[in-house]
Automatic annotation (TrEMBL):
Residues 335-363 have a biased composition (Basic and acidic residues). It comes from Ficus carica (Common fig). PROSITE patterns: RCC1_2, RCC1_3. RCC repeats lie at residues 61-115, 124-178, 187-239, 240-299. This is RCC1-like domain-containing protein. Keywords: Repeat. Residues 2-331 form the RCC1-like domain. Pfam families: WD40_RLD.
Length: 464
């Protein structure tokens, strides 16, 4: 209804192509330049969405916005309002410079923009605009802005080089390091905006209208990623340390969704460990949902999640809330896939190596990929069934010995053997699964009979 989908129309339950980006022109080009470069259309290189706003950055560094667009208004107090834009509109305040990072809150936008035409090292300047009722723009007051304005803490003359930005519902978080100290990895997290749930990490629930550092984070770490949920914040260091703070111990959970007797908002950073006294090895990125957090670790081969679990957002096969990180049930690579991945990486690193263009090799590769895809799909299907029946993710050790290295087998006999070898807990679980499945099937059959009866009544009214 606010145009955040990029077209003027009703809600959409399926992806709709934004045709405007098929013919996107550089907003900083003259008419003559557009004519000579008609075949050089821009590409979208970065996207973000928040609240009722969507934004995109093209490969030339131009920023486009649609949905709730802050505008000047003479009819509202302070001359500020939101106007729905149903197609991408360029933010012309940054023409001639490159937008590098952008984040959206419920009603505000924060961007990192190069000081010149291209991004060079530590020259990023921080701008913000939109609603500022809680000081989430970091401009030292609570006045809303309809146009981008520089946050002085991170202007061109600032001693701080800002490199990451994230927005919660009504607060903002930034990562910055001292300029000219490239050999020293230390960095700092700065936050501002609404603080009533501790989401700023300042040790209080006070609101901050200007950027303030999160002082209880160690000053000897290099922070590589930051993100905000609605009312919580999380950061991760290059060493694998993760800290969270904000609503319900930094989980983002609402007070009514408490999962244990110990509760309360975290007004200062809490250290999160993947296991007892174990860090997240080789972290890549942390990201927050409304009330849950996910981190990518082990160079992208592992995902951990914690927080609100409804609708299965934690990916661990359950819908319950989780106070501590739990592994996302991501299919592990087979040895064949790992070997193929290693082979591909070596080919990319050595650009002088001859490419194999034999038709037979290409066909064999396609068949191998198809088999790997089928195997991955089958493994996921088995995991779903195994979790439904036994209440835990499928592991290789769960395969009966009689089935290992076996080409053929008797289904009925193997099932009988599994029942005989099952302990009491497994048998009780199987009985519960059978009852629930039988009840669900009966319920669905009854619903279909009712629908068929209703349909028959409407198709054969009395008197016909």
């Amino acid at each position: 209804m606010d145009g955040q989908l990029g077209f003027d129309g009703e809600h959409s339950a399926k992806p709709c192509l934004m045709e405007q980006f098929l013919k996107l022109d550089n907003p900083d080009s003259s008419t003559d330049e557009l004519k000579t470069k008609s075949n050089m259309l821009n590409k979208v290189s970065y996207i973000k969405a928040g609240g009722m706003t969507s934004v995109a950055v093209d490969d030339l560094g131009a920023l486009w916005i649609w949905g709730n667009n802050p505008q000047q208004s003479s009819s509202t107090e302070g001359g500020f309002s939101f106007i729905s834009s149903f197609t991408p509109t360029p933010v012309r305040d940054f023409l001639g410079r490159a937008v590098v990072k952008v984040a959206c809150g419920n009603e505000h936008v924060v961007v990192l923009v190069s000081g010149g035409e291209v991004h060079k090292g530590e020259d990023l300047i921080c701008y913000s605009w939109g609603s500022n009722k809680h000081g989430q723009l970091g401009l030292g007051d609570r006045e809303s802005r309809h146009r981008p304005e520089i946050i002085n803490t991170f202007n061109q003359d600032s001693p701080w080089a800002v490199y990451e930005v994230a927005c919660g519902a009504f607060h903002t978080a930034l990562l910055a390091r001292k300029k000219g100290a490239n050999d020293i990895p230390e960095s700092m997290c700065w936050t501002f905006g609404l603080g009533e749930n501790g989401q700023l990490g300042h040790g209080t629930t006070h609101t901050a209208v200007s950027p303030e550092p999160v002082k209880e984070l160690p000053d000897t770490v290099h922070l590589i990623s930051v993100d905000c949920g609605l009312f919580h914040t999380s950061v991760v260091s290059s060493a694998g340390d993760v800290w969270s703070w904000g609503m319900e111990r930094g989980l983002g959970l609402c007070p009514g969704a408490r999962v244990s007797a110990v509760s309360g908002d975290a007004i200062s950073p809490l250290l999160i460990l993947c296991e007892e006294n174990v860090k997240f090895q080789n972290p890549v990125q942390v990201t927050c949902g409304a009330a849950h957090t996910v981190i990518v670790a082990n160079d992208g081969h592992q995902l951990w999640a914690w927080g609100r679990g409804r609708s299965g957002v934690l990916g661990n096969g359950k819908t319950t809330d989780c106070l501590t990180p739990t592994l996302v049930s991501w299919p592990e690579l087979t040895e064949d896939v790992k070997q193929e991945e290693t082979k591909t990486n070596k080919e990319e690193d050595n650009s002088t190596e001859e490419k194999k263009d034999s038709q037979e090799v290409a066909e064999a590769d396609e068949k191998l990929k198809a088999l790997q895809l089928r195997l991955s799909t089958m493994e996921q299907y088995v995991s779903v069934l195994h979790h439904s029946i036994f209440g835990k993710p499928f592991e290789e050790k769960d395969i009966p010995t009689s089935l290992q290295n076996s080409g053929t087998f008797d289904v009925a006999k193997e099932w009988e053997n599994m029942l005989k070898s099952a302990d009491r807990a497994k048998l009780v679980r199987l009985e519960m699964f059978y009852r629930n499945m039988l009840s669900g099937v009966k319920d669905q059959l009854m619903k279909r009979r009712v629908m068929e009866a209703i349909k028959e009544c409407f198709s054969n009214p009395k008197g016909n």
